[in-house]
Design brief:
The complex is a heterodimer of chains A (295) and B (352).
Chain A lengths: L5 E10 L2 E11 L4 E5 L6 H8 L7 E6 L2 E3 L4 H6 L2 E4 L11 H5 L9 H5 L5 H14 L16 H15 L3 E5 L7 H16 L3 E5 L3 H7 L2 E6 L2 E7 L5 H9 L50
Parallel strand pairs in A: 3-8, 3-9, 6-7, 7-8
Antiparallel strand pairs in A: 1-2, 1-4, 4-5, 9-10
Chain B lengths: L21 H7 L3 H7 L2 H20 L7 H26 L7 H18 L5 H27 L5 H20 L8 H5 L5 E2 L2 E2 H19 L1 H11 L1 H6 L4 H27 L10 H11 L11 H21 L4 H26 L1
Antiparallel strand pairs in B: 1-2
Classes of the chains: A alpha/beta (295), B mainly alpha (352).
The complex binds adenosine-5'-triphosphate and magnesium ion (MG).
Subcellular location (chain B): Cell membrane
Protein name (chain B): ABC transporter permease
Pfam families (chain B): BPD_transp_2
């Protein structure tokens, strides 16, 4: 495994007087599930919006495969293979699930009609239905608008859409917020199978159980900065909560010139309190936590 | 998930059954396909109102109302308003509004007349130049509207109120406040020409309406129009170029106003600088009566066509019956409120 698939360094973003992100870092390796956690207002959604081209950062760098990129629009992030389930603005309620599914990438009729901009309704409906069912989202009818679906069904459609189109990364900003136990379990399964198909997943959720269940790694955001990283496997609840609330300060002034890019380095050698637990199976190389951290 | 759930749309079918409209409910029960073909409940409902009006007036005045002469007149009178209302349908579906259409109509008529006068006003070339100038003028105003709404982030109500004043005032400045006469050849030609017994102006209006109705329902342009009105943030995040699309929609409304300006020159023979200050309200009323939601995201051209004809039939029928024509305004106002009330009521029934 080589360098990170997606890396954000020193991202800053303010809305008027509110500093949503103050030099936030983020790392995502190929084919892993990373949970991005933090208190309300920590800046998680803002970071996701920046990494998916919805907003542009005031400062900082985004690297994909090590190359710096600038996303001027959602379209550019999509071209890079990034799809997003946003926390708030997921779907057009007046459109059908299929119309939402294909919004911005409509399938046109073959031939002349297609060149005139005629939509291939049937093709889109069939495909959308297939993809939703593949992910366990059952829709009674595909001719009703999304506004008639339950919150959970809507979330299902949004997740299915993102997962279908993503080639490299899916960001999911609280995708299970409206879901029941069974459906949540299904989304978690889905996240795993997406990961197994080679697409990296970034999950944002406040449910620590889910975080622990599905994450290969966990990154913690606090007051607009990354303050800790954990391996998902065996981090304790206390550590997560501590990192989120700031009770447990770790990585800051961390030393870290340690062999970050050495996948064979025994993670167990790292003290737990450092917040870094490098024995996560899928994360060969964790990059230095700190260098950017305390700029 | 917090996707706003509001408004209706033609694709919606099941929930229509909750409406007060028994026919739509029955039409909906055999299957989603049928209602979809019939359109949304509001169209069916309001279509029945139109049919009822036609039947009542025909029964009351069979010899004067239900004549092809009278009905053709009625349609010809409505044809120009229909163009404005179709453009307005697109705009309102994006959850915008265009108050400027009457002003753009007049202004385009004036520029077209000026150009035709300057080029002789008799040759076919001059008259064709007139229509090009009229439509271009409308287009430019429309682009201005759209750019201010999309990129200037000024509410459409304000933008188009501003351009209404600017275009009406501009037209008065250009004409010195005196109505200009259209070229005689235009007034006596296109203004009177018929094809298969139907005025050419009506054919033009019908053709434009058909094309734009199909585009709205079947093409990507229409799909994006609905998406923006439904949830512009979600549309943007899905890769729809929202600002560009908004400019195109307002430009379309302007273009149609320009065409309407030219046809109105042909039909009435004057620029009518002071006769179009309520065109915008008539167009909006027609669109809303036709079931297009002022909140955006829902509406059809079919509904708008019906919405144009309800006031037109009322006016014509009242005239023939000898009812004071002022009653038409009163009744149309009431129908308008009823239509919006119905829309809200159904939406509430659905959203709970
Ligand atoms: N559009 C905006 N305008 C102004 N302030 C904003 C905007 N978006 C976010 N903020 C502010 O930025 C900070 C971070 O917000 P963000 O939505 O990223 O938090 P979050 O970590 O996603 O929280 P939550 O868990 O509640 O979703 C908050 O203080 C918020 O008030
Ligand atoms: Mg958030």
């Amino acid at each position: 495994m080589t360098g990170p698939l997606l890396e954000a360094k020193g991202i800053e973003k303010s809305y008027g007087h509110v500093d949503a992100l103050r030099g936030a870092d983020f790392t995502l390796m190929e084919g892993e599930v990373v949970s991005l956690i933090g208190d309300n207002g920590a800046g998680k959604s803002t970071l996701v919006k920046i990494l998916s081209g919805v907003e542009s950062p005031d400062a900082g760098q985004i690297l994909i495969d090590g190359d710096p990129v600038r996303f001027e629009s959602v379209e550019q992030a999509r071209v890079a293979g990034i799809e997003t389930v946003h926390q708030d603005l997921a779907l057009c309620a007046d459109l059908t699930p299929a119309a939402n599914f294909f919004l911005g990438r409509e399938v046109l009729r073959p031939g002349l009609l297609g060149r005139l901009g005629f939509l291939d309704h049937a093709a889109m409906r069939t495909r959308a239905r297939q993809e939703c069912e593949r992910l366990g989202v059952r829709l009674k009818s595909d001719t009703v608008s999304v506004s008639t679906l339950s919150g959970g069904q809507r979330q299902g459609v949004a997740v299915a859409r993102a997962v279908t189109w993503a080639r490299r990364v899916v960001f999911m900003d609280e995708p299970t917020a409206a879901l029941g136990v069974v459906q949540t379990e299904r989304v978690l399964d889905l996240i795993r199978s997406v990961r197994d198909s080679g697409v990296a997943v970034v999950l944002i959720t406040h449910n620590m159980q889910d975080v622990k269940a599905v994450s290969d790694r966990i990154e913690v955001l606090r007051l607009g900065r990354r303050v800790a990283r954990f391996s998902g496997a065996d981090v304790s609840m206390e550590e997560l909560v501590g990192a989120m609330t700031g009770a447990l300060e770790q990585d800051p002034a961390g030393s870290d010139s340690n062999g970050l890019d050495d996948p064979d380095r025994p993670g167990t050698a790292e003290p737990r309190a450092s917040g870094r637990d490098l024995d996560a199976p899928d994360t060969g190389a964790l990059e230095s936590l700190d260098e950017e951290q305390n700029r | 998930m917090t996707a706003p759930s509001r408004s209706s749309k033609s694709q919606r079918t099941e929930t229509e059954d909750a409406g007060p409209d028994g026919v739509a409910a029955r039409a909906g029960s055999p299957g989603a396909g049928l209602t979809r073909r019939l359109g949304s409940a509001q169209e069916v409902w309001i279509g029945l109102v139109l049919v009822a009006l036609l039947v009542v007036f025909s029964l009351l005045e069979p010899d004067s109302f239900a004549t092809s002469f009278n009905l053709l007149n009625l349609v010809a009178d409505a044809a120009i308003l229909l163009l404005l209302a179709v453009g307005m349908t697109y705009v309102i579906i994006t959850s915008g509004i265009d108050l400027s259409v009457g002003g753009l109509l007049v202004f385009s008529g004036v520029t077209a007349t000026k150009v035709m006068e300057a080029t002789g006003a008799t040759s076919t070339g001059s008259l064709l130049l007139g229509v090009v100038v009229a439509m271009l003028t409308g287009l430019v105003w429309g682009v201005l509207n759209g750019a201010l709404v999309a990129y200037g982030r000024i509410p459409p109500l304000i933008v188009t109120l501003g351009t209404l004043g600017m275009s009406l005032g501009g037209a008065l400045l250009l004409t010195g406040g005196v109505d200009m006469r259209a070229p005689g050849r235009l007034n006596l030609g296109l203004g009177l020409d018929k094809f298969v017994g139907v005025p050419v102006i009506v054919w033009i209006s019908v053709a434009v309406t058909l094309v734009l109705g199909v585009i709205l329902a079947q093409c990507r342009f229409g799909r994006h129009t609905y998406a923006i009105g439904s949830n512009s943030k979600a549309a943007r995040n899905s890769g729809v170029l929202v600002n560009k699309h908004l400019v195109k929609v307002y430009a379309l409304a302007g273009l149609l106003a320009g065409l309407a300006g030219y046809l109105s020159l042909a039909k009435y023979g004057v620029t009518g600088v002071s006769a179009h200050s309520t065109d915008n309200l008539q167009a909006i009323a027609a669109v809303v009566i036709g079931g297009t939601s002022l909140f955006g995201g829902a509406g059809t051209v079919t509904g708008t066509v019906i919405g144009v004809f309800i006031p037109a039939v009322l006016q014509n029928g009242f005239q023939i019956l000898g009812v004071k024509p002022f009653w038409q305004q009163v009744v149309v106002g009431a129908v308008l409120i009823a239509a919006v009330y119905l829309d809200q009521w159904r939406r509430k029934a659905r959203d709970n």
